[in-house]
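Format is chain and fold; as here:
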Amino acid sequence: MHRILLVEDSPDLAEGLQRNLEMDGYEVSLAMKGAHALALATSDHPDLIVLDLGLPDRDGYTVLQDLRTRGSTCPVLILSARSLEADKLQGFRLGADDYVTKPFSVMELLARISALLRRANKPAPVAAAAAEAPRAAAMDDEALRERFGLTARQIAVTRLLGEGYSNAEIAKQLSVSYFTARNHVEQVLGKLGVSTRAAVGAVLYGQG
């Protein structure tokens, strides 16, 4: 399970984002001040940081700069009401990996987070070439249908989960609502007999 550090000083927005991230299968830590965010970034070793710029104790740019100065390579997605091009350029110059302006679409934010995590976890070309050879072929549709009783739609969801897609991305791929996609995911996990999204790939490639 990927760990996300959410840095947001608005309680209502933070609560809503945390709930949506957890529904999408992430483990979420929350910080409402810059100092707390830096402490959690050190102790929790998050896989990704969602960073607001308007923090009460220090500017989010300062938090980002401190992270990079300390050698952190953790992907950082800035989430801010500052929409000027100069603000975005400043974020990228200091080492941000993405920038989303408020107000925003939750589905778009979840999709961007998933894309950043996939990019961060992508192996180097040499390592990838070495890893590809022994990888078993994915279980075919008929086997998934007979062994687990999956429907055609659930098979499609299973394959997307195996590729690391988030609920928001699955919804987009299948042209359904976010909540429909989430329901499909929960049904697939139940039929496969696994408790986490990460375990789906092991089942799909015969390692479960």
